Amino acid sequence: MNIDASNAHDVKSTLACFTDDGVVRDENETHRGQIDIEHWLLTTIKKCKFQFKALSSQERDNETVVSIEVSGAFPSSPISLDYHFNITNDKISSLMIDS
Question: Cα dist. 38→17, 23, 50, 67 in Å?
């Protein structure tokens, strides 16, 4: 995921980081495919007005886990979350976000 594009709320560039059939799991919801992920991005940007700061990264069990400080217009901001990425052909095939 391109943190600069995410922080600029550039949906087109962020969406381009995902495979066509990518999956995102966030806040107990699953979003599948480009249209659903785009809707998730737009909704999250509008609701949270977030900014990301990468804290650390590590490879774990065939995935990349990036700890990210997320700040924005939501209770308990800032918060640290783990972003679990699976990559296929240099694009995100799945992203699971947990605290």
Answer: 11, 11, 16, 22
List of long-range contacts for 10-13, beta carbons under 8 Å, 24+ apart: 11/38, 11/41, 11/42, 11/45
HSE, CB side, 13 Å, CA atoms: give it for residue 70.
Answer: 21
> Model pTM?
0.90
Residue tagged 């990468």 (tokens)? 54
Q: Exposed, middle or buried by CB within 10 Å (0-12, 13-18, 19+), for 18?
A: buried
pLDDT at res. 59:
93
The helices-and-strands tally (H runs, E runs) of the chain is 3, 6
pLDDT averaged per 10 residues in sequence order, the chain, 99 residues? 88 96 96 98 94 94 93 94 95 94
